[in-house]
Design a protein that fits this description.
With about 270 residues, the protein is α/β, with parallel strands linked by helices. The protein has one domain: Alpha/Beta hydrolase fold, catalytic domain (Rossmann fold), CATH 3.40.50. The protein has eleven helices and eight strands. Strands 1-2-4-3-5-6-7-8 form an eight-stranded mixed beta sheet, with helices on both faces. Helix 3 links the parallel strand 5 and strand 6. Helix 4 packs antiparallel against helix 5. The longest helix has 17 residues. The protein is globular. The mean pLDDT is about 95.
Amino acid sequence: MPTVNIAGTDLYYERRGAGEPLLLIQGLGGNSLHWGEGFLGGLEDGFELVLYDHRGAGRSATLDGEHTIADLATDAVGLLDALAIDTAHVVGISMGGMVAQDLVLQAPERVRTLTLGCTFPGGPDATMTDMTVVGMLAEAVLSGDQERKMRVGYEVMIAAEYAEQEGAYELYSELAAQYPAPIPVLMAQLSAIMGHDTSRRLPEVQAPTLVIHGTEDRLMDVSNGELIARLIPGARLELLEGSGHMFFWEQPERSARLVREHAQAAAQS
């Protein structure tokens, strides 16, 4: 199992595909399995994909203490260093999108293009998750009932139309059951998210930026994607009609095509 020690923590990572490097940064409680083969398969013919698991998540080492979003961004830069990757296209979703924002602000010279999905910038103009949704998720996680946790997560993360498709829940639950994030990891990540605010610094971003957001996202309101696109100079906004928080899962081919075209357009400019 490939791991690399970053800041004293062993992080699990994978490299697959061929082409320019593309770093994929997962969200709250997520790990490298959660990208889904549909999305990854649409990218690996044109890019060398670099996937990894955050501290304490997936197949990375057990979490030791708390961390900030900036710490997770430093982990991402450290992974690029360890793999001798000077620059990469960067895709971050949800909490991973917050990490990607901090990464491009910490080390702008390392980012070829930036794609931010279903995420938010923090600050006074951002829209926090509805407390009813937060309560639903918290109760399910703290119940200790794995099936309830998956059912509630599915209801919140996935748009209703896609959720009704045959076999969709079975696929979701199969992956969600592998390497579930321990409660201390979820709490540490939530604490990091609460401290995230790049809103005043996003106008400094110079990397070509694509913002993707599902219009039916219950976890992270679509207004956050619209706000990020306004804050980053020249950012392009793509709204996926009818998609929920996991847009890359619900519309994998279109999502992968948007990332590919964004990277290609930057290379040709």
